[in-house]
Amino acid sequence: MNQLDHMFADTPTPAAYARAYLNYLGEILANIDEMAVSAFIEALLEARERGVRIFFIGNGGSAATASHFANDISIGTRETEKPFRAVSLTDNLAIITAIANDDGYDDIFVQQLRTQMQPGDVVVAISVSGNSPSVVNAVEYANSNGATTFALTGFDGGRLASIAGHQINIPTNQGEYGPAEDGHMIIDHLVGTYLTRRVREA
Q: Which one is the CATH code of 33-201: 3.40.630.30, 3.40.50.10490, 3.40.50.300, 3.40.50.1010?
């Protein structure tokens, strides 16, 4: 059993489970590598200085996280004179379904990067397992075509841990998708709030 199964078995009430979950999430967050987060922030600031694009990709809950990241960085920072050119490739349903229908789901991000990405851009891949084929394919393409790649993962990092240029891992047990996705959203808000204040002082 993963930790969530143990907590459910050991807590007799919803309130007790809630407390156990929150305590466990605190333990997970305490073990995130802050230097990896720092490297991510610096890469985003550098991308802003160079005027290059920052692409976010992910499936399922990670697709929602990708959208949230793009919103918080491109719009949430309220920076228009020198903006963060952040885009989520999960948001155009017509494009995604056309690619999935014509070429297969595993190519939904690769095909978009082929038409949108330029050398020097940043690609941020979000996948708890680190093994999602559509995300792995996109990172491999980005690596081969001059982009800087970051992976936000959970569990052991999966395939992305070995192919992404940089990784922020949420150290969770296999199958603990909820806490891993919680961690990704906290990274989003941590990074977004920092960038907002950093550009305000510039």
A: 3.40.50.10490
